[in-house]
Q: What sequence folds into this?
């Protein structure tokens, strides 16, 4: 097993939390600015199509914040997006199996009375609204989130320990969704995405899997259509078979990545990372209680 780099990693570990804080602040700042810049359009849209204008603004915020944070992280972690490999592998199907498992988790959570606090991304609006929503959810979100979390954060943390990198990246990714009904499924989804990236060294694999998962979520409104149902079931079965065939590989990977160094404690002892953990968990708890009462 490769030894961790000799330099002190504490400063670099702090940059992970600092970058995510910047991402959150940018999202809030851009939302605030757009609310004033786009106010005339929003007022006009009250008589036209408010949902389409709102979806367009969210799409622009996602694009602008994604570009800025990628530039910042690329400079901070000394990584170039062009260095990420672009190949494809069949294990993308595991994401579809996981999508089915996520649905089961959601159903179980609802049985315990947990409200659904996730945003509604269904394509049930106008043509403009559906177009902007599709671009944001199926194209922009997978590209930027994968480049940020798998391409930058995971790549940085794997230098210390791959298992540690996968779990922490997944935790950070899940918490960024800021609601319980998305955070838990996103965590498990990220475990697969991170493992796929570590094993294939391919960012395109995770982008396609992420986009496919989001696309299926949008298509859930049409689950009563026989073709959609058959497609989902076929992908779920194929994904399950892939997971079973790779189970031995998973176990060997976990054994190989055992380490005596407590990288988890070292990571969350850094102030930016600890504050991110506390802030996102509190946000999720507060939003959960607000939706329950």
A:
């Amino acid at each position: 097993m490769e030894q961790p780099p000799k330099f002190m990693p504490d400063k670099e570990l702090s940059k992970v939390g600092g970058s995510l804080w910047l991402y959150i602040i940018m999202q809030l700042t851009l939302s605030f600015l757009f609310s004033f810049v786009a106010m005339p359009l929003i007022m006009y849209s009250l008589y036209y199509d408010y949902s389409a204008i709102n979806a367009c603004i969210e799409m622009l915020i996602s694009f602008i914040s994604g570009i800025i944070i990628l530039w910042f992280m690329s400079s901070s972690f000394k990584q170039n997006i062009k260095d990420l490999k672009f190949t494809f592998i069949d294990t993308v199907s595991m994401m579809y199996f996981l999508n089915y498992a996520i649905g089961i988790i959601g159903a179980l959570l609802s049985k315990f009375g947990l409200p659904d606090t996730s945003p509604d991304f269904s394509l049930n609006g106008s043509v403009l609204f559906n177009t902007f929503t599709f671009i944001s959810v199926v194209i922009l979100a997978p590209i930027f989130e994968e480049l940020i979390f798998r391409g930058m954060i995971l790549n940085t943390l794997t230098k210390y320990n791959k298992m540690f990198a996968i779990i922490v990246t997944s935790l950070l990714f899940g918490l960024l969704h800021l609601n319980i009904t998305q955070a838990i499924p996103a965590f498990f989804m990220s475990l697969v995405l991170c493992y796929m990236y570590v094993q294939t060294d391919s960012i395109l694999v995770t982008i396609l899997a992420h986009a496919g998962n989001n696309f299926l979520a949008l298509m859930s409104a049409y689950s009563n259509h026989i073709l959609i149902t058959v497609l989902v079931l076929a992908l779920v079965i194929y994904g399950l078979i892939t997971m079973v065939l790779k189970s031995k590989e998973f176990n060997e990977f976990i054994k190989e990545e055992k380490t005596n160094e407590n990288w988890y404690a070292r990571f969350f002892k850094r102030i930016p990372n600890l504050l991110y953990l506390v802030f996102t968990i509190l946000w999720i708890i507060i939003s959960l209680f607000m939706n329950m009462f």
Observations:
- Residues 83-89 have pLDDT under 50 and may be disordered.
